[in-house]
Structure formats: structure tokens, C-alpha cells
Amino acid sequence: MSRTGSTRVLRTTDVRERPDALISLSCQLGSRTVHVISLVLVGIFLGAAVLSGQQAYQVALESDRLVRFTSRTVIDEFEGTTERVDGLVLLNTEELTDRTGGPESEIYFEVDLASLDTGIGMRDRQMRDSYLEVEQYPYAAFGGTIEQVVSLPGAMFRVTTRGVLGIHGVEQERALTCDLATVNEGYHVNCSFPVFLSDHDIEIPKLMFLKLNNEIRMELDFILEPAELDSEN
């Protein structure tokens, strides 16, 4: 387990002029806006270049996106949602197949925690300021590689990834599984997995209007579309 503090904002010029400023996908958890995140991620992939036989995908920002966390306790249940998820995927194959995966595949997704909405303003403020501490740790991020792809009926795939999940400045090695369905030239992604607040040094609130279980259920739903990146033959 490691703790990562805020890093400086990387601007467009940094991506173009300072590719050495970018650190590994799984650790780039700095304070940036979603727009700048996209530029940084593209810069990372541009720096590596897409080799022949590979394909890059990005979160389709113009399509519906949903991130939901659900907390269930004995006396209460509530959820928070946001559409602010962004990321890139680099396949080591031209499309998802059972041969996809390994160290030449790369994934990175980031969620803007400051935009989480539970439907109650006071609860949102307490959660953001006192527990998630979003001014210092504004994003939850996962970066790693594809470990296995299993083809399912109906042009669907079960994809297992392995990497690092960073929340509240604390990184944990995780294996996450998502279901992907072929949609036009891209994929509809649906993921669901547990997150334990104690694993990320997040105090479990006991306020009347903000009672959380240590185990939070995270769900992500978005579309991946082909990304226009440079390639090497």
C-alpha cells in the first residue's frame, strides 16, 4: 500500500514539450481537470505510439457515462453518482479477442470524485470535504494491463484487468473484471466491484445523514470508442 499526494497540473504544453514529466499510468493520480486528464492520457499513448496490430480506445465523452457508488447499512442505503469518468485503453490486438492481453496492453481510467452527487447538498459537502478530501485527492484512478479476455455469446467479452486502484492518495493492487459488449466500432463497458474504505485510509462516517458501510459497491457504465492516435508500422 502506498500513499500518493497531489502533483502539479500538466498543461497541453507539458504533454508536447515534456513527455518525460509523465509517470506510469498506474501512478498518475495528480490534481487535474477531466479535460486536462484527456490530454495527459493521449500524451502518454502518443509517447509510446501505437504499433501495427494494436488499437487504442477512449471513453466516449459525448455518450452516456455513469459512475455509481452504493452504501448499504442496517438502517440506511444511499448512492452517489457522477458522469465524470475518462480514460484510454490500448489493446495489443486490433480488436478484443481471446488473444488480447499481456504487458503490451494498457488501461487507465479516472473518476472525478468532487462531482459525486448523493442528492443532499450537506451530505455531499461532508463527504467531499471531511472524508474523501477531494481538494487534495480529487480523483479515483485505476491503471494497469489486461490479464484475460473470455468471449461470451452475443458479441460480448469478460475482461479481467490487473493494476493499481488509487483512492484518497492510497494505492492498492487490484484485479477488476468488466463485461464489454460490441457497439458499432467500440464497446459498451459495465463494471461492478467492491471498494473498502479502510483500504484507502478513509474514515467511516457515522453522522446521522452520512452513515457509510466500510464496503462500497462501485459501478461504472460507459462507451469506448476508437481513439485517433499516431501509429508506427
Q: Can you characterise this structure?
A:
This protein is mainly β. The chain has one domain (2-232): Lipocalin (Beta Barrel), CATH 2.40.128. The chain contains three helices and 15 strands. It has helices at residues 12-17, 34-48, 121-131, and strands spanning 2-3, 50-51, 55-59, 66-72, 77-82, 85-91, 106-112, 139-152, 156-167, 170-183, 186-196, 206-207, 210-211, 215-226, 231-232. The strands form three sheets. Strands 3-6-7-8-9-10-11-14 form an eight-stranded antiparallel barrel. Strand 12 and strand 13 form a beta hairpin. Residues 4-48 have low confidence and may be disordered.
Core attributes:
Lipocalin; mainly beta; 14% helix; eight-stranded antiparallel β-barrel; 45% strand; 15 strands; 233 residues; elongated
* CATH level 4 superfamily: Lipid/polyisoprenoid-binding, YceI-like
Q: Which blocks of ≥5 consecutive residues have pLDDT under 50? A: 4-48
Any idea of the CATH class? Mainly Beta
What is the tally of helical segments?
3
Tell me the radius of gyration: 18 Å
- Mind describing the biggest β-sheet? 8 strands, antiparallel, barrel
Mean pLDDT: 78
The tally of strands reads 15
Fraction of residues in H or I helices: 10-25%
Mass-distribution shape: elongated
**Class by alpha and beta content:** mainly beta
Order of helices and strands: EHHEEEEEEHEEEEEEEE
**How far apart, in Å, are the first and last alpha carbons?**
39 Å
Using the coordinates shown, work out and report the CATH topology: Lipocalin
Task: Report the portion of residues in β strands.
Answer: over 45%
CATH architecture: Beta Barrel
Whole-number count of domains: 1
